[in-house]
Structure formats: C-alpha cells, structure tokens
Predict the structure.
Amino acid sequence: MFRVEYERADGNSAWLKSEYHDPEDADKIAKRLLSGSDGELIRTTVVEQAGYVYSQHVDYPATITLTDWSN
C-alpha cells in the first residue's frame, strides 16, 4: 500500500486519507495535488507502507530571496 504525504508552504504536513495499491496511481495523485495547489503546497511524497519513499515532487514558491555576494 502507498500513501501520499503533502507539505504546505507554512511548514505543516499531513497525509491524504486514501491508500493506493499501485504506486503509479499514488504518484499521479501526488503530481496533480502539487500542480493544482497554486503555491499552497511545496512538496508531495509517495511513501510505501514500510516507510520507503517511492517518489517526491517539489515546487518551492518563487518568494525565495537570493543574496548578491558580488559586492
């Protein structure tokens, strides 16, 4: 069985209630969840029942500030 965990931009994380027999089905859900979140979610992870990570998808918001060290 595979489950989908998601992490919000505010740092909180949770699990979807659904469990999936096919890891590809869980992976599709994880990708769709992240792509439709409009920046609210930053990461989704598909985890196998024993705790092994099957896949992880990351979408960090564009609010990351880079420091210019060239001066």
